[in-house]
Amino acid sequence: MPRIGWYGLGSMGLAMASNLQKQLVRKATQSLIYNNRTMARGDALKALGGTPESSFPNVVAQCGIIFTMVSNDAVLQQLISSALSSGHSLQNKIFVDCSTVHPETVRTTAAKLQEQEADFLAAPVFGGNPIAVDGKLVFAIGGPGRAREVVKPLIQDVMGRKVIDCGEDATRASLLKIAGNIVTVNMMEAVGEAQVFAERTGLGTGPMEELIGEAFGPVAGGYSKRLTTGAYAPPLDSRPGFGVSLAIKDAKHAFTMARDHKVELPGLKVSLDNMEAAREYAGECLDSSSMYGVLRQKAGLEFWNERSRKGNA
Ligand SMILES: NC(=O)c1ccc[n+]([C@@H]2O[C@H](COP(=O)([O-])OP(=O)(O)OC[C@H]3O[C@@H](n4cnc5c(N)ncnc54)[C@H](OP(=O)(O)O)[C@@H]3O)[C@@H](O)[C@H]2O)c1
């Protein structure tokens, strides 16, 4: 097994990299080499035996398999450009991107890497931070077969509970992720609407949450908890579970694909408008479920609830 590298230690990346590093320790193989824009985010990974490295091209130079887990398409493109222009050979290296990016970004990235005889796998994930911590994410994976077979054992029962194989065409994995997020964002909107309805009618958020968890499953129940625990608007010095701008990016990717294929997404449009209104009102430090705050305002309540932060000061 070649040495493994990692870039991206955000809400998802740190949990995923930690599980991978623990597996490398169990297998008594060489440690994960990591880099992140904010290196201090890696302290917990270092404590598990991970090896910090000061730049992404240096990670690439030392590793045969390089995972990335970053916010958006522009960050991924910038990282790959830095690797391509580093002067180090990329021959036979496997790049595995777990971020949610547009299929076109996947296509161009894979093509650029192929020119230097490197493989690119799109391996986006389903599930939030607590599921990442438990190593129970669902992965979609697409790209060259040899690379997929090398990488799958690093995912299955290490970072994920299930790997959905999308075949040779990496763009299909990214397409599946974007399609999945249509469900995610609509479900957050639905749970938010039901919880505002429950509060305003006097039913109460407690019984509503019990029902959502029991009748609609743990994912919907988890979205309800983001509202009732105030996690939709966390303290300003914290990192949201799934940042509102990331979900806005995902919804916009879905709309560009939908437009090209003459598909309408009216539910997603409502959710997107409410997420954008939430960000306009309360800033960047919001979870994707923060459309709830806007639904509260429309029902004559404050954006904030009793357990969220109370403003932007
Ligand atoms: N959170 C979820 O529930 C969830 C679930 C499934 C998929 N996703 C997707 O997974 C990806 C990562 O999500 P996340 O929640 O982990 O995001 P996050 O917490 O915002 O972390 C983003 C990562 O990208 C790095 N980064 C951001 N801007 C950068 C820049 N300009 N240059 C270099 N590095 C930069 C950050 O570095 P710093 O640490 O220095 O900020 C961090 O390592 C996203 O594509 C998201 O859509 C998220």
TrEMBL record:
Residues 174-294 form the 3-hydroxyisobutyrate dehydrogenase-like NAD-binding domain. GO terms for molecular function: NAD binding; NADP binding; oxidoreductase activity. The active site is at residue 177. Keywords: NAD, Oxidoreductase. It holds the Pfam family NAD_binding_11. Coiled coil: none annotated. InterPro entries: 6-PGluconate_DH-like_C_sf, 6PGD_dom2, 6PGDH_NADP-bd, HIBADH-like_NADP-bd, HIBADH-related, HIBADH-related_NP60_sf, NAD(P)-bd_dom_sf. Residues 3-164 form the 6-phosphogluconate dehydrogenase NADP-binding domain. Belongs to the HIBADH-related family. NP60 subfamily. PANTHER family: 6-PHOSPHOGLUCONATE DEHYDROGENASE NADP-BINDING DOMAIN-CONTAINING PROTEIN-RELATED, OXIDOREDUCTASE GLYR1-RELATED. This is NAD(P)-binding protein. It comes from Aspergillus heteromorphus CBS 117.55.
